[in-house]
Amino acid sequence: MPRPARSTRRRLAWGTAAVLAAGVAVPTLAQATPGGGPASAGASAGATAAGSAAASPASGHKAKNVIVLIGDGMGDSEITLARDYTVGANGRLNMDGFPRTGAYTTYSVDEKGKPEYVTDSAASGTGWATGNKTVNGRISKTPGTDKPLPTMLELAKKKGLATGNITTADLTDATPAVQNAHVRDRGCQGPADMKKCPRDTLGQGGGGSIAEQTVTTGADVLMGGGKEHFDQTVTEGPHKGRTVTEQARKAGYRLVTDKSGLESATPGTPLLGLFARSDIPVEWTGKPAARGGTDPQRCTTSNPERPDTTPSLERQTSRAIELLEAQQKGKNGKAKVKGHGKKPGKGFFLQVEGASIDKQDHVADPCGQIGETVAFDRAVKVARDYARKHPDTLVVTSADHAHASQIVPTDAKPAGLASTLITDEGRPLQVSYSNNDPAAAQEHTGTQVRIAASGPGADRVQGVTDQTDLFHTVTGALR
Ligand SMILES: [Zn+2]
């Protein structure tokens, strides 16, 4: 299934944003508008329909704001598992209510551009962030030549939009990094982690570690975990001897580390929220899947290792939107926030990642995984509620790749790990994690994943597209 050649030089949205990638080929739009088929009937028809009152797409394809929400590892089986457990088999999650739905392919490539059928988060994120396929492990750089590719966040910023990037993982982890940074290997998260990225060091003319580049790229709102990488000391360049956190302060960022800090943040001052040393602790707990299955279990909807002071992804998302919106209303975000009739700002771009769906899938922990999917779904609701009142907002939700969990018959005997859950509607459900040696981490899979959207340009996600098409959907809507 070779896709059309990716060598066609194509007009890049927002005026050949060759800031970073002079000479880098940009993919064709290829299958981005598949046949203009009929609008999806809406996933929620006749059901309990969390989101069935979807805002009808604004006319035309121009968006003022774009919110991209990525459930890491959130394939159809992960969505279905969270749905079955919480709202029931015939219920609907918030993410099920988008008026436009399609599927996209997620494969990555090798150094020569040949398909690798199972992607990691770095290559897949590079796909939508830049419109280009790359090799597994690489962050927004080309596969063979290792050259930086401009990202949708960088392009939005260049265009004058307010920008935000938030996650439940390390802020330097692959999915947020694909918008903020360009490195050969996703492991190069802090100044002390640069072994695999010799050409990306400041001394060699690169941008430095992902943490350093996150600061220099300079999104207005940055939130996640991963404080340990920002607390490393910069070893070369103008900030040599400072920690990356100090570098961020010097660049004007206000650093917050908990809920109250997040609440006190003010528009006009760039915000760096680092809410955990590494990944933000998950919301739910339970027994991990085991060989031969588990006793039927109910999930615990709390986690003793998650401090009360940790903001939810839902609240991070609503605060990010408030701050970015206010930022666009006036220079300091104060004077022009109220009332209508103001000269409209340029809008904002925000990426939100629910990261630990993937991480809990890797460790075969169904309760952790469902809790993170539900937490992500609440963030989707925040975005959809905002878009209902601001129909000039394109909201897209998707995943970076599919994952291991499968819902199997209760009398099946999976060869790997399994657990039986009792759902909220009182029914037994067996989930299997059996796509790798049970003693090893469970793996991503290469199947296509759902993409759904509302607002200007949303119809472009219908049918079967590729992950790289999302770049053109977003940059095209903001053009
Ligand atoms: Zn993963």
From TrEMBL:
InterPro entries: Alkaline_phosphatase (IPR001952), Alkaline_phosphatase_AS (IPR018299), Alkaline_phosphatase_core_sf (IPR017850), TAT_signal (IPR006311). It comes from the Bacteria. Keywords: Hydrolase, Magnesium, Metal-binding, Phosphoprotein, Signal, Zinc. Coiled coil: none annotated. GO terms for molecular function: alkaline phosphatase activity. It is an enzyme of class 3 (hydrolase). Belongs to the alkaline phosphatase family. This is Alkaline phosphatase. It comes from Streptomyces iconiensis.
